[in-house]
Amino acid sequence: MNPEQIKENLLLYRPGTEDENDPDMAQAWQAAQRDPALMEWFQQHQAFHAMVRRQLRQIQPPAGLKNRILAGRPAGQKAAWWRRREFLAAAASLVLLGSLLFWWVMPPPENHLATYRQRMVKYALTQYRMDIATSDMARIRAFLAARGGAGDYVLSPALAKLPGAGCALLKWQNHPVSLVCFRLGKDDLIWLFVAPRASIAGAPATAQPVLAAAGRMQTAAWSQQDKTYLLMGLGDESLIRRFL
Fold first, then answer.
1. Domain count, the chain
2. Are residues 76 and 143 in the same domain?
3. What CA–CA distance (Å, rounded) separates 128 from 107?
4. Measuring CA to CA, which residue among 205, 237, 200, 234 is closest to residue 222?
5. What is the CATH number of the domain that holds 163?
6. Structural domain boundaries, residue 201
7. Using the 8-state DSSP alphabet, how is residue 197 labeled?
8. Are 178 and 150 in contact (CB under 8 A)?
9. How far apart are CA 238 and CA 202, in angstroms?
10. Is residue 125 located within the same domain as residue 237?
11. CA distances from 13 to 3, 188, 199, 202, 217 (A)
């Protein structure tokens, strides 16, 4: 079951119903529990629908609506259909629901983690350049620090063993982003982006990596102190996990 199939199943999930005993639903739920990105999406999906239910429950029908419906005609003087209270109440409900749905399908805000990930992936695939090309990691740190970037980034033991390829200083929401490139082989690279945590809405709260595929790229994001790290490479999930 791929991520899209998992989402299709979870979109139909109704808490407290027989859905919990459905084999496909159970398989999708187990898969989501193993994938932090899918679990985050599912929790946001459930929170949205819980909010919609709460809002709809707060809408009170007009007094006497049930009796007028059963009687087949409104009590008192007959009003134009578009001025009847039951129509106005229904219209208000539709406007509210439409507003909530619009909020749900809107793309993430410009400074959101998902948008940040997409921008950095696009940069690595289409606009990639290095301000300096060097394997000297001390020189890379000094270059970034001297230009307002993050020269004090922390590397995992596995990542620290890779030879450097160079670095670049980018901008995100008017904040500096340090890009450090490592060589995996003669022609293969792996990219590490380091940005101020406060500049990315929805940045991971802990050092526990959140993995997500972005086209041909596999990515992992995590936060340490005041920085958010985004590691990416061309390959599958096992490639990124080797360097976390």
1. 2
2. no
3. 25
4. 205
5. 3.30.200.100
6. 113-241
7. G
8. yes
9. 24
10. yes
11. 15, 42, 34, 25, 30
| Cβ density class 80-112: b for 16+ within 10 Å, e for less | eeeebeeeeeeeeeeeeeeeeeeeeeeeeeebe
**Both 149 and 209 in a single domain?**
yes
Length of the chain (residues) = 244
- Would you give per-residue pLDDT tens digits along the chain (244 residues)? 666 667 666 766 666 666 666 777 777 777 777 777 777 777 776 776 666 666 667 666 666 666 666 666 555 555 554 455 555 555 555 555 555 554 444 454 555 888 888 888 888 887 667 899 999 999 999 999 999 999 999 999 999 999 999 999 998 888 999 999 999 877 788 999 999 999 988 888 899 999 988 877 899 999 999 999 999 998 888 888 999 9
pTM: predicted TM-score of the whole model, two decimal places: 0.57
Whether residues 100 and 160 fall in one domain: no
Cα–Cα distance measured from residue 230 to residue 213, given in angstroms and rounded to the nearest whole number: 12
Residues 166 and 236 in one domain: yes
Question: Do the Cβ atoms of 114 and 202 come closer than 8 Å?
Answer: yes
